Amino acid sequence: QVQLVESGGGLVQAGGSLRLSCVGSRRTFSNSAMGWFRQSPGKECEFVAAISAESDGTYVAASAKERFTITRDNAKATVYLQMNRLKPEDAAVYCCASRDGSTRRSQYEYWGQGAQVTVST
Questions:
Q1: pLDDT value at residue 12
Q2: What is the 3-state secondary structure (H, E, C) of 12-29?
Q3: pLDDT at 110
Q4: For an engineered disulfide with 24, which of 3, 28, 41, 52 has Cβ 3.0 to 4.6 Å away?
Q5: Residue 74 dihedral angles phi and psi, to the nearest 5°
Q6: Which element (helix H / strand E) includes 120?
């Protein structure tokens, strides 16, 4: 069963922008902190960004800070990752994930299938 569903991936030129979306369900989204991760062939899964359940707290990895923005729309059970000024090294499969938003130490337990992002030069 699909836990979370990403969309919005594709091919973009370096310097361009792309917005990823991830739609969850009541079980996987409500009262959940959401995160974005990415993985390219031969590399470990890398944390990209996270947002608290009520959008009162966000965190973006240093590699994407000032370029990526994470937001969410709880009414639509959707979390977004706005990616600007994309670089070739940003190319990867991007996955969204959710965890219990009531504690900062909870682990991500639901994961999406991933969306491919390709950046050309």
A1: 98
A2: EECCCCEEEEEECCHHHH
A3: 95
A4: 28
A5: -65, -30
A6: strand 115-120
Q: pLDDT at residue 2 above 80? A: no
Provide the 3-class DSSP secondary structure of residue 121: coil
The DSSP secondary structure of 16-83, one letter per residue, reads --EEEEEE--HHHHTTEEEEEEEE-TTS--EEEEEE-TTSS-EEE-TTTTTTEEEEEEGGGTEEEEEE
For residue range 82-100, list pLDDT tens digits in order. Answer: 999 999 999 999 999 999 9
Per-residue burial over 89-117, b if 16 or more Cβ lie within 10 Å, else e, is: ebbbbbbbbbbebeeeeeebebbbebbeb
Length of the chain: 121
User: Rounded to the nearest 5°, which phi and psi values hold at 36?
Assistant: -120, 135
Tokens of 9: 């991936």
Measure CA 11 to chain center: 17
Res. 26: pLDDT tops 90: no
